[in-house]
Amino acid sequence: MAISGGTSSAFYAILLFSLLSAVRCLASNDKKTCMYAVTVETTCTKGADTSNHVSLRFGDTNSNDIVVRRLNSKHVRRVDPLEPQVLDDMSRKPFQVCMVDQFQVAGKCVTSPICYLYLKLAGADDWRPGFVQVRSLEGPHLSSNYFYFRRVLPRHVWHGFDTCPGKVTPFGIKRNRKV
Q1: What spatial distance separates the first Cα and last Cα of the chain, rounded to whole Å?
Q2: Fewer CB within 10 Å, N side or C side of the chain?
Protein backbone atom coordinates (compact mmCIF):
# COMPACT_ATOMS: atom_id res chain seq x y z
CA MET A 1 0.00 0.00 0.00
CA ALA A 2 1.60 3.27 -1.09
CA ILE A 3 0.99 6.60 0.60
CA SER A 4 1.21 9.74 -1.48
CA GLY A 5 3.87 12.35 -0.59
CA GLY A 6 1.38 14.88 0.83
CA THR A 7 -0.36 12.32 3.02
CA SER A 8 2.89 10.89 4.45
CA SER A 9 4.25 14.34 5.37
CA ALA A 10 0.94 15.16 7.12
CA PHE A 11 1.13 11.82 8.94
CA TYR A 12 4.69 12.54 10.14
CA ALA A 13 3.73 16.09 11.17
CA ILE A 14 0.86 14.76 13.29
CA LEU A 15 3.13 12.09 14.80
CA LEU A 16 5.81 14.70 15.61
CA PHE A 17 3.23 17.05 17.13
CA SER A 18 1.80 14.31 19.37
CA LEU A 19 5.31 13.27 20.52
CA LEU A 20 6.21 16.88 21.37
CA SER A 21 2.96 17.29 23.29
CA ALA A 22 3.68 14.15 25.32
CA VAL A 23 7.22 15.33 26.11
CA ARG A 24 5.91 18.78 27.17
CA CYS A 25 3.32 17.12 29.41
CA LEU A 26 5.94 14.92 31.11
CA ALA A 27 8.29 17.88 31.52
CA SER A 28 5.58 20.04 33.09
CA ASN A 29 4.76 17.31 35.64
CA ASP A 30 8.43 17.00 36.65
CA LYS A 31 8.95 20.77 36.81
CA LYS A 32 5.94 21.56 39.00
CA THR A 33 6.98 23.84 41.83
CA CYS A 34 5.41 24.27 45.22
CA MET A 35 5.64 27.10 47.73
CA TYR A 36 6.95 26.74 51.27
CA ALA A 37 6.98 29.10 54.25
CA VAL A 38 10.20 28.71 56.25
CA THR A 39 10.18 30.05 59.82
CA VAL A 40 13.57 30.55 61.49
CA GLU A 41 14.15 31.68 65.08
CA THR A 42 17.47 33.13 66.23
CA THR A 43 18.10 32.58 69.94
CA CYS A 44 18.36 35.41 72.47
CA THR A 45 21.94 34.59 73.47
CA LYS A 46 24.42 37.46 73.13
CA GLY A 47 26.25 37.15 69.80
CA ALA A 48 23.69 34.71 68.33
CA ASP A 49 22.97 36.86 65.25
CA THR A 50 24.73 36.59 61.90
CA SER A 51 25.11 38.47 58.65
CA ASN A 52 26.53 35.41 56.86
CA HIS A 53 24.92 33.48 54.05
CA VAL A 54 22.65 30.70 55.30
CA SER A 55 21.73 27.77 53.05
CA LEU A 56 18.81 25.43 53.66
CA ARG A 57 18.18 21.85 52.53
CA PHE A 58 15.03 19.87 53.31
CA GLY A 59 12.96 17.06 51.88
CA ASP A 60 10.84 13.98 52.37
CA THR A 61 11.19 10.19 52.36
CA ASN A 62 10.57 10.00 48.59
CA SER A 63 13.89 11.69 47.67
CA ASN A 64 12.31 15.07 46.96
CA ASP A 65 15.21 17.31 47.96
CA ILE A 66 14.88 21.12 48.02
CA VAL A 67 18.01 23.25 48.32
CA VAL A 68 17.96 27.00 48.93
CA ARG A 69 21.47 28.34 48.29
CA ARG A 70 20.98 31.68 50.05
CA LEU A 71 18.11 31.95 52.48
CA ASN A 72 19.01 35.54 53.48
CA SER A 73 17.90 37.00 50.14
CA LYS A 74 14.33 35.69 50.37
CA HIS A 75 13.29 37.36 53.63
CA VAL A 76 9.56 38.07 53.80
CA ARG A 77 8.76 39.39 57.24
CA ARG A 78 9.57 39.54 60.92
CA VAL A 79 7.22 37.77 63.30
CA ASP A 80 6.70 38.41 67.02
CA PRO A 81 8.08 35.33 68.85
CA LEU A 82 5.23 35.38 71.40
CA GLU A 83 2.34 36.05 69.03
CA PRO A 84 2.14 35.02 65.38
CA GLN A 85 1.30 38.52 64.16
CA VAL A 86 3.31 40.32 61.50
CA LEU A 87 5.31 43.25 62.84
CA ASP A 88 6.59 44.56 59.53
CA ASP A 89 6.52 43.74 55.85
CA MET A 90 9.58 45.83 55.06
CA SER A 91 12.78 44.20 53.97
CA ARG A 92 15.41 44.09 56.71
CA LYS A 93 18.46 42.15 57.74
CA PRO A 94 17.42 38.63 58.86
CA PHE A 95 18.87 36.46 61.65
CA GLN A 96 19.03 39.10 64.39
CA VAL A 97 19.10 38.22 68.12
CA CYS A 98 15.70 37.21 69.58
CA MET A 99 13.93 37.43 66.22
CA VAL A 100 11.74 35.06 64.25
CA ASP A 101 12.02 35.46 60.48
CA GLN A 102 9.81 34.03 57.80
CA PHE A 103 10.89 33.28 54.24
CA GLN A 104 8.99 32.14 51.19
CA VAL A 105 10.70 29.44 49.13
CA ALA A 106 9.74 27.76 45.85
CA GLY A 107 10.98 24.28 45.03
CA LYS A 108 10.18 20.76 43.99
CA CYS A 109 6.96 19.42 45.49
CA VAL A 110 7.16 16.95 48.37
CA THR A 111 4.84 13.95 48.36
CA SER A 112 5.18 12.94 52.00
CA PRO A 113 5.77 14.98 55.18
CA ILE A 114 9.08 16.84 55.36
CA CYS A 115 11.32 14.74 57.62
CA TYR A 116 14.82 16.16 57.25
CA LEU A 117 16.30 19.63 57.38
CA TYR A 118 19.88 20.89 57.23
CA LEU A 119 21.40 24.37 57.51
CA LYS A 120 24.78 25.53 56.26
CA LEU A 121 26.49 28.72 57.41
CA ALA A 122 29.09 30.40 55.16
CA GLY A 123 31.11 33.27 56.59
CA ALA A 124 33.22 34.41 59.52
CA ASP A 125 30.77 35.04 62.37
CA ASP A 126 28.80 32.53 64.43
CA TRP A 127 25.04 31.99 64.38
CA ARG A 128 22.88 30.26 66.93
CA PRO A 129 19.47 29.34 65.48
CA GLY A 130 16.70 28.31 67.85
CA PHE A 131 14.26 26.41 65.66
CA VAL A 132 13.34 26.01 62.01
CA GLN A 133 10.03 24.88 60.59
CA VAL A 134 8.97 24.40 56.96
CA ARG A 135 5.28 24.68 56.15
CA SER A 136 4.05 23.39 52.83
CA LEU A 137 1.51 25.80 51.36
CA GLU A 138 0.15 22.93 49.23
CA GLY A 139 -1.14 21.09 52.29
CA PRO A 140 -0.55 21.20 56.05
CA HIS A 141 -0.14 17.40 56.16
CA LEU A 142 3.16 17.80 54.25
CA SER A 143 4.66 20.35 56.67
CA SER A 144 7.56 19.56 58.98
CA ASN A 145 7.69 19.45 62.74
CA TYR A 146 9.95 21.93 64.50
CA PHE A 147 13.68 21.24 64.19
CA TYR A 148 15.44 22.56 67.31
CA PHE A 149 19.10 23.60 67.03
CA ARG A 150 19.84 25.84 70.07
CA ARG A 151 23.61 25.72 69.46
CA VAL A 152 26.19 27.50 67.34
CA LEU A 153 26.24 26.05 63.83
CA PRO A 154 29.54 24.81 62.44
CA ARG A 155 30.63 26.71 59.33
CA HIS A 156 30.74 25.41 55.74
CA VAL A 157 29.08 22.03 56.48
CA TRP A 158 25.49 20.83 56.39
CA HIS A 159 24.23 20.48 59.96
CA GLY A 160 20.74 19.36 60.93
CA PHE A 161 18.35 16.53 61.57
CA ASP A 162 16.97 13.51 59.73
CA THR A 163 13.83 12.07 61.32
CA CYS A 164 12.82 10.02 58.27
CA PRO A 165 11.65 6.50 59.13
CA GLY A 166 14.17 3.71 58.74
CA LYS A 167 14.79 0.12 59.79
CA VAL A 168 17.52 -0.89 62.22
CA THR A 169 19.80 -3.55 60.72
CA PRO A 170 23.03 -5.12 62.02
CA PHE A 171 24.87 -2.77 59.64
CA GLY A 172 23.18 0.43 60.80
CA ILE A 173 19.95 2.26 60.02
CA LYS A 174 18.58 1.61 56.56
CA ARG A 175 16.70 4.58 55.10
CA ASN A 176 13.83 4.26 52.65
CA ARG A 177 14.88 7.38 50.77
CA LYS A 178 17.71 7.67 48.26
CA VAL A 179 20.66 9.81 49.29
Answers
A1: 54
A2: N
Angle made by CA atoms 85, 86, 92, in degrees to the nearest 5: 150
Beta strands in the chain (DSSP E): 33-42, 53-59, 65-68, 75-79, 86-88, 100-108, 116-122, 129-136, 147-148, 159-162, 166-169, 172-175
Q: How far is CA 173 from the centre of its chain?
A: 24
- Count of helices and strands (H, E) across the chain: 1, 12
Report H helices in 41-168. none
Q: What is the CA radius of gyration of the chain?
A: 23
Report which of 111, 22, 131 is spatially closest to residue 59, judged by C-alpha positions. Answer: 111
* 78-117: pLDDT as tens digits: 565 555 555 455 557 889 899 899 999 999 999 999 999 9
